[in-house]
Write a structure and sequence with these properties.
The chain is mostly helical. The chain has one domain (2-203). It is 65% helix and 9% strand. The chain is built from 6 helices and 5 strands, in the order H-H-E-E-E-E-H-H-H-E-H. The chain has helices at 2-6, 12-22, 60-66, 68-107, 113-168, 189-203; strands at 26-29, 38-40, 48-50, 55-58, 172-175. A 3-stranded mixed sheet has the order 1-5-4. The chain is rod-shaped, with a radius of gyration of 26 Å. Mean pLDDT is 81; it is low at 1-18 and 29-52.
Length: 206
């Protein structure tokens, strides 16, 4: 039964990257008062004029892959998935055992017609309840929990970048997933990731 639940479980990193990209190309901006500008082209956007030294970008997928907070949340989520899978499998196993017992009695003609109809109908209702009500409910709950998990990570990354930029004062910090090309010198991914993990470890358990 494991595949029944996990088949609708979107790959976490892919879902996270898409969610972050949908939040917009610019992570944060500040007013640029300088006239010393240069053209920077971003995917799906008009050309932005800004100082090269005032621009930076982050590789969000790399951050997520190595962000301790994300992996802690992911472990918790996987435990919930496993628990729901086990509970559902136990109910299906019990139903299959009851169906087998019913069939044996039926084949040996140990049931009256009314007993056969009554027990058969109850078994059918149990199967319909599991497959058409409980299973979709489990999938929906897991999907909602995963979406909340992803939003928590997105929010943590964006809040940290905004706080980081209070001191750094970049005019534009981009998500590299939306940039066609960029100077590696403008990549602040490692710095952001280091700060995120340090902040998370410091606040963990508080």
């Amino acid at each position: 039964m494991k595949k029944i639940i996990t088949i609708l479980w979107i790959p976490k990193l892919l879902a996270m990257t898409l969610l972050l990209a949908s939040c917009g190309n610019a992570v944060t901006t500040t007013e640029n008062k300088s006239d010393d500008t240069q053209q920077v082209v971003t995917a799906g956007q008009e050309t932005v004029a800004t100082k090269t030294s005032d621009i930076a970008y982050i590789r969000v997928d790399s951050i997520v892959q190595r962000y301790d907070y994300y992996h802690d949340l992911l472990r918790e989520f996987e435990l919930k998935v496993k628990k729901k899978e086990q509970d559902f499998k136990s109910k299906m196993d019990a139903l299959e055992a009851d169906i087998k017992a019913f069939k044996e009695k039926f084949d040996k003609m140990l049931l009256t017609q009314s007993e056969s109809e009554e027990q058969g109908e109850r078994l059918k209702q149990r199967n319909d309840e599991l497959m058409n009500v409980e299973r979709p409910k489990i999938m929906q709950e897991l999907g909602e929990e995963e979406a909340v998990m992803n939003r928590k990570v997105v929010d943590a990354i964006y809040r940290y970048v905004e706080k980081y930029n209070v001191e750094k004062k970049y005019s534009l910090i981009l998500n590299a997933a939306t940039v066609i090309t960029g100077n590696p010198a403008l990549d602040i991914t490692s710095e952001i990731l280091k700060g995120l993990n340090q902040e998370y470890i410091a606040n963990k358990g508080k």
